[in-house]
Design a protein that fits this description.
Layout: H1 2-14, E1 19-21, H2 22-27, H3 32-41, E2 45-48, E3 51-53, H4 63-70, E4 78-79, H5 81-88, E5 98-102, E6 116-120, E7 128-131, E8 134-137, H6 139-148, H7 153-165, H8 171-181
Parallel strand pairs: 5-6
Antiparallel strand pairs: 1-3, 2-3, 4-5, 7-8
């Protein structure tokens, strides 16, 4: 059973940038105690409470973002706000922490790790997409969320312009965002 359990865990982790949660393993028939034993033996590395990493899977540049979406116990978080703008390369935003959104009703049972900013919102399916398998809000939602959270007007305007120039926003969507955020098009007074 141990080899079969590891194979199951590794298969899950392969689709999640090397990470697996206790909930993922339990749903696949692997007990949390089995994960703990694997971590004690060094087969897995405990990344955070209930989140493990398979060290045989090579690390990549997006790993920290996948880990952030797996951190909230019981729900899958979605990358949002400034983090989403950064990953979409919309504006010169450079977030110091990873912004994630969880459902309004979700309450963390433990302290939020310092690298994360947790926002609460009930996102609709059409407001969520994926970036290399990692849940992320759509570019439009990212701009609206960052604006609502107080990101500076210059960066919001730049994000809208960048999104339109790169084809992420149609002309109508860009106009809708400018109206919603009160941002004029670059070069306009």
């Amino acid at each position: 059973m141990p080899r079969r359990a590891f194979a199951t865990v590794a298969e899950i982790a392969a689709d999640q940038h090397g990470y697996v949660t206790q909930q993922d393993a339990r749903a696949a028939g692997v007990a949390a105690t089995t994960l703990a034993r694997m971590a004690e033996r060094g087969t897995l590395v405990r990344a955070s409470h209930g989140v493990y990493r398979v060290p045989l899977i090579p690390a990549g540049p997006l790993d920290q973002y996948m880990e952030a979406t797996l951190w909230p116990r019981g729900v899958r978080a979605t990358l949002s706000h400034e983090t989403a703008l950064d990953l979409y390369d919309l504006s010169d935003v450079n977030p110091a922490r990873i912004h994630i959104t969880v459902p309004r009703a979700h309450r963390a049972q433990r302290a939020v790790p310092a690298p994360y900013v947790v926002h609460r919102a009930d996102l609709r399916d059409e407001e969520i997409t994926a970036l290399e398998g990692i849940p992320i809000v759509t570019p439009m939602r990212a701009v609206l969320d960052a604006h609502a959270a107080g990101l500076g007007p210059a960066l919001i305007g730049q994000a809208i312009d960048d999104g339109q120039r790169r084809g992420l926003f149609s002309r109508a969507q860009a106009a809708q965002l400018r109206t919603a955020t009160g941002e004029a098009r670059s070069g306009e007074s």
